[in-house]
């Protein structure tokens, strides 16, 4: 952390939730931290557990269900993760594994 006014690294945190530069005396507010990503990660973990053993077998089926609760990017990433985990959990032939991996790859597009 450095002072935005003079660049000094001699900065103190005040009880008023402000920073104070000990060199020039400049005060500035602590930046607001956005924690919504934590809520999204928790939601994705719950959805992973919900859909890991669900009967939906293709990327399209999983996406349709996941996009009801997540944005498209997160839904695609989670669908691919679910398909890959399913493939790794099952004892499948190489052809079946290749099919599941290609389906998971389509989820990223």
TrEMBL record:
Q: In its keyword annotation, does this UniProt entry include Coiled coil?
A: yes
Organism equals Pyrobaculum neutrophilum (strain DSM 2338 / JCM 9278 / NBRC 100436 / V24Sta)
The identity of this protein, by name, is TFIIB-type domain-containing protein
Q: Which keywords label this protein?
A: Coiled coil
Coiled-coil boundaries: 56-90
């Amino acid at each position: 952390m450095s002072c935005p006014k003079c660049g000094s690294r001699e900065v103190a945190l005040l009880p008023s939730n402000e920073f104070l530069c000990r060199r020039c005396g400049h005060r500035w507010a602590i930046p607001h931290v956005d924690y919504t990503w934590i809520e999204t990660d928790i939601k994705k973990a719950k959805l992973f557990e919900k859909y890991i053993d669900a009967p939906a077998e293709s990327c399209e089926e999983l996406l349709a269900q996941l996009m009801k609760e997540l944005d498209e990017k997160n839904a695609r990433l989670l669908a691919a993760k679910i398909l890959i985990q399913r493939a790794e959990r099952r004892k499948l032939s190489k052809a079946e594994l290749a099919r599941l991996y290609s389906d998971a790859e389509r989820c990223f597009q």
